[in-house]
Specification:
alpha/beta; seven-stranded mixed beta sheet; 29 strands; about 25% strand; binds adenosine-5'-triphosphate; binds magnesium ion
Length: about 550
């Protein structure tokens, strides 16, 4: 999956060195989502990195649910995360793992620290503890409970575990150094009371380990060699190492950090995505406008396009913002190469071919793809009445308009040349039909009179087509940095992010379109059938992406 031409990134170099110098014999990574939301494109970067490194170096990658906080986590998210990782094309090592699988062991290790005089039960309230913690400039102060005896701590921790203490009444803290320059080392909390059932362990526990206490120890239990996380955990690394050094863990994982993905015109924070869902700005986590993997899947993104995007953006240790145009390029490129072609008239205008026999239909053939011979040819029913796009006809036009004009010719794609003779209007003066004549001697060849039509337009049979709804999506936000300082990202929601068109007419073969299968609707963009709405008889098609980058044009204006 890594391209040969691209220089190796720092983690690839580091792992190669670890292997050649014998520091590590087997590469083991993990992807550790918290099951409190759906995966988004930022997670895809971490997935491609962790699974990609394991593949590249013949190792393994675990899927581990980092489920230490029962308050926000749910089984629904566990299932969605598994589906998304598999869909991206990765296979985790063995069964999916849970931090909660190790709650017994973590509890034992908490006792171990207490017995070693390296952890204590502290009764400071959250507010008081903040006060004692100090600041970046000032050292903290020791908690008045710091010097409790081992026996007292064991007894109190037992009470915490047995539910004899209230939430917030006390916590278990590692005894490290209240004067440490790194605040994470100032006696961090390792266990909290939370009288709450957990989606995996039920009512078994009313105390839960902190992220910091659980994460590294689970890495050690699973034999993870390289624990890769995002840069905000850099300051936690000394604590990660302190815990590994002070506990009898079965292996010695090491933590490495990389920069998270930031994308312009996009928010990738589960909290904000949840807000978009909860407040009804979108229709669920899998709304095709969402940067979630489930939304992108419904929209028509392919796993390969997302993996290629992650490959293109690379892996570094410095934060930067990636242009969402790169993601759009990646899907456009994939669909251009792989999507079968089809015709769909989005705003139909009726055409009657006055010299074509009534009741007659013939089958024309069109290639499935301009260069991919492996994609099957399509059958296009052709008859006396057809539809073309409203915008493909004008009564008068200048030379730049290469479509159908009254008194002129145009070629119907994969079919004949037609000539516009007469316009039919309704009482409001709107054009509702164009009467044309067809030159049946023009299939695959120029008209005999030598006058070549200037343009080629798409069309669909009026009697034999699929009536469908088309949803044209645009970027969810119209501001390049919707969550930059001071802004409320909800104010940046693009009011024109969705246009729904009904009564669109697609070529008959699209009755068999499967959700997620992308098509190029010739001249209109890339589309796929929606998996949530519509039926085989009346499908809904989502526009995945336009044929060209309309935003780049907008910006260059
Ligand atoms: P969010 O900010 O969306 O809540 P998170 O880090 O809290 O993200 P987790 O479920 O803990 O979400 O993330 C699982 C893994 O994915 C972590 O290793 C995390 O570092 C990584 N990850 C999350 N967001 C990004 C991102 N934008 N870019 C790269 N990796 C990310
Ligand atoms: Mg997290």
């Amino acid at each position: 999956m890594t391209s040969e031409s691209k220089p190796a990134h720092f983690l690839q170099n580091l792992i190669r060195e670890d292997l050649t110098e014998g520091r590590v014999t087997q590469i083991a990574t993990r992807f550790p989502p918290e099951p409190n939301g759906y995966l988004h494109i930022g997670h895809a970067k971490s997935i491609c990195l962790n699974f990609g490194l394991a593949q590249e170096f013949g190792g393994t990658c675990n899927l581990r649910f980092d489920d230490t906080n029962p308050a926000k986590e749910e089984e629904e998210f566990v299932d969605a995360i598994k589906r998304d990782v598999s869909w991206l094309g990765f296979e985790w090592n063995g069964e999916a793992k849970y931090s909660s699988d190790n709650f017994d062991q973590l509890y034992e290790w908490a006792l171990h620290l207490i017995k070693d005089g390296k952890a204590y039960v502290c009764d400071l309230s959250a507010e008081e503890a903040r006060h004692y913690r100090g600041t970046l400039k000032e050292p903290g102060k020791n908690s008045p409970f710091r010097d409790r005896s081992v026996e007292e701590n064991l007894a109190l921790f037992e009470k915490m575990r047995n539910g004899e203490m209230e939430e917030g009444q006390c916590s278990l803290r590692a005894k490290i150094d209240m004067a440490a320059p790194n605040i994470n080392l100032r006696d961090p909390i390792i266990y909290r009371i939370k009288k709450m059932a957990h989606h995996q362990t039920g009512d078994k526990w009313c105390i839960y380990p902190s992220y910091d206490f659980a994460h590294g120890q689970c890495d050690a239990i699973e034999g993870i060699s390289h624990s890769i996380c995002t840069l905000e955990f850099e300051d936690h690394k000394p604590l990660y190492d302190w815990l590994i050094e002070n506990l009898p863990v079965p292996s010695r994982p090491r933590q490495y950090e990389f920069a998270r993905l930031h994308l312009n015109y996009t928010v990738v924070s589960k909290r904000k995505l949840k807000q978009l869902v909860d407040e009804g700005h979108v229709d669920g986590w899998d709304d095709p406008r969402m940067p979630t993997l489930s939304g992108m899947r419904r929209r028509g993104f392919t796993p390969a396009s997302i993996r290629n995007f992650c490959e293109m953006i690379g892996v570094t240790r410095s934060d930067s913002v990636v242009d969402v145009g790169m993601l759009e390029y990646s899907i456009r490129d994939d669909l251009d190469k792989n999507a079968p072609r089809a015709m769909c008239v989005i705003e139909p205008l009726k055409i009657t071919l006055k010299n074509y026999p009534e009741g007659q239909e013939e089958m024309l053939s069109a290639p499935g793809h301009p260069v991919r011979d492996d994609l099957p040819a399509r059958e296009l029913p052709f008859g006396r009445t057809l539809y073309i796009e409203k915008e493909d006809f004008r009564e008068e036009a200048n030379k730049k308009y290469k479509r159908l004009v009254l008194g002129k010719k145009v070629r119907l794609r994969n079919a004949y040349v037609i000539f516009a003779e007469e316009v039919v209007k309704n009482d409001a003066g709107e054009i509702i039909e164009v009467i044309c004549s067809v030159d049946l001697d023009t299939l695959g060849k120029d008209p005999a009179d030598g006058v070549k039509p200037k343009g080629v337009i798409h069309w669909v049979s009026a009697d034999n087509n699929v009536d469908c709804e088309v949803r044209l999506y645009d970027r969810l936000f119209n501001d390049a940095a919707p969550d930059a300082g001071g802004k409320n990202f909800l104010d940046c929601v693009n009011p024109d992010n969705l246009q729904v068109l009904k009564g669109c007419k697609a070529e008959i073969g699209l009755a068999k379109a499967e959700p997620e299968q992308g098509y190029q609707f010739e001249r209109n963009g890339y589309f796929c059938r929606d998996s949530k709405y519509g039926s085989a008889e009346a499908p809904v098609f989502n526009r995945t992406i336009g044929l060209r980058d309309s935003w780049a044009k907008e910006q260059n204006k």
